[in-house]
Amino acid sequence: MKLGVIGSPIEHSRSPEIHYEFAAQFDLNISFEKYLVEKKECIDWVKDFFANKGSGLSVTLPLKEVVLGAADEISERALQAGAANMLHLRGNKIFADCTDGIGLVNDFKNNEIEIVNKTILVIGAGGASRGILPSLLNEDPKQVIVANRTTEKSFKLVSEIQETSGLQMKSSILMPTGLSLKGIDFNTFDIVINATSISTSKEQTLDIDKAIFNKASVALDLYYSQSDTLFMKMAKDSNVHTVLDGWGMLVHQAAASFNQWSGFNPKIKEALKSRRD
């Protein structure tokens, strides 16, 4: 079975080792490669991959929205998110799905983190945010605030999520704002999530006020790293009780993708343990 992960940058990706670990559990013979793919070539590249015996692809930044243009069929949750993190050849059709949100929710549950009735700050309004917002809202938080350096982008994202998912009818409140969080009480955030791509850069500059961690008990950087990111360091310096990177989410979303590609439900315990290897 020919699999892979696409994105830019892609060198840091540990998706291959996770999926080889899953495949070994069932004695499956797979190949899983990392492919550097840019936005401008993405759709043609994806179609060519599946035309040449490809079975499935994981999708990372900045291609999660772009790949929808290569899909023949799109799942409901990918439509809600307006983004996809995996592609699957079903018959002769390319199927797009988004397992990021369920991966995040399952990671929270694995770490015994409550979402219900919590106020959540999500920093960033790109593809990573798109992938997690519908699933977060389905867990009935009190409020989810999306902050972005460009305020218009956060408003656009919130509007699109509400329109495509119907989640504006739920009790949860989804609210956009600028990165300054003007007019918002910093002491209301229970969970703070960094969904920007800043942690993938060697020159990290995260222009946020440390006061966002005043009340927070959980801080999560969607980027996974062998060492603490600047965001994680800020959270720890602010005495946030639980500070996580995106490794758990990556493993959980990978398990959901692997199930669609192979039909098997992998055990994730060993993959979770391998994070520092």
- Work out the strand percent: 15-25%
Rg on CA atoms, Å: 18 Å
- The appropriate CATH architecture of the largest domain is 3-Layer(aba) Sandwich
Low-confidence stretches: none
Oligomer: single chain
CATH homolog superfamily of the largest domain: NAD(P)-binding Rossmann-like Domain
Number of self-contained structural domains? 2
Structural class, from secondary structure content? alpha/beta
Strand order of the largest sheet: 2-1-3-5-6-4
The top level CATH class name of the largest domain: Alpha Beta
| Helix run count | 9
Give the fraction of residues assigned to helices.
Answer: 25-40%
Q: What's the average pLDDT?
A: 91
Distance between the termini: 26 Å
Number of strands: 12
What is the element string, with H for helices and E for strands? EHEHEEHEEHEHEHEEEHEHH
Task: Provide structural commentary.
The protein has helices at 15-25, 42-51, 76-81, 100-110, 127-138, 151-165, 230-237, 247-262, 269-273, and strands at 2-7, 31-36, 54-59, 73-74, 86-90, 93-97, 119-123, 143-148, 173-178, 191-194, 218-221, 242-244. It has two domains: 2-98 and 248-276, Rossmann fold; 101-245, Rossmann fold, CATH 3.40.50.720. The strands form two sheets. Strands 2-1-3-5-6-4 form a six-stranded mixed β-sheet, sandwiched between helices. It has 277 residues and is α/β, with parallel strands linked by helices. Helix 1 packs across helix 8 (247-262), helix 4 (100-110) packs across helix 5 (127-138) and helix 4 packs across helix 8 (247-262). It is globular.
Brief sketch in words of this structure:
This protein has 277 residues and is of the alpha/beta class. The protein is built from 9 helices and 12 strands.
